[in-house]
Amino acid sequence: MAVCIAIIGKDNAPLYISIANIDKELDMQYRVHAALDVVEEKCQFINKAAPESKELYLGLLYSTEFHKIYGFITNSKIKFILVMDSENVALRENEVRAVS
C-alpha cells in the first residue's frame, strides 16, 4: 500500500504531496526530501554512464524498517517519489514499475 506519493519539480520544490495518514505528514515529508538526495546521486551516475539513457524508473531509492521508497524521473526532470508500506506487503520490482 502506498502511504505517500510526491511530485517534485525540477528545482526540487514539492509540487504535490499526498499522504494516507495525515498524522504522519512531517515524517513522510522528511522521507521524501531524504529520497531526493538519492535521486540526485542516481541521476548523476546515469548521466555519466550513458547521457542518452532513456531509463526513467530509478527503482528502490532506499528502505527503512517500515517503508520502501521508489523513484521515477521524467525527461523534464519532474520527480515522482512513492513511499510504500513494507511491513505487511511484499512487493516485487515489476509491480512497483507498473505503478509508475
TrEMBL record:
Protein's UniProt keywords contain Transport: yes
Keywords recorded for this protein, A-Z: ER-Golgi transport, Transport
InterPro entries named among the record's database cross-references: Longin-like_dom_sf (IPR011012), Sedlin (IPR006722), TRAPPC2L (IPR044760)
Keyword hit for Transport: yes
One term under GO cellular component: perinuclear region of cytoplasm
Localisation: Cytoplasm, Perinuclear region
Pfam family, one: Sedlin_N
GO biological process: endoplasmic reticulum to Golgi vesicle-mediated transport
PANTHER family: TRAFFICKING PROTEIN PARTICLE COMPLEX SUBUNIT 2
The family this protein is said to belong to: Belongs to the TRAPP small subunits family. Sedlin subfamily.
Name this protein carries in UniProt: Trafficking protein particle complex subunit 2-like protein
Organism name: Glossina brevipalpis
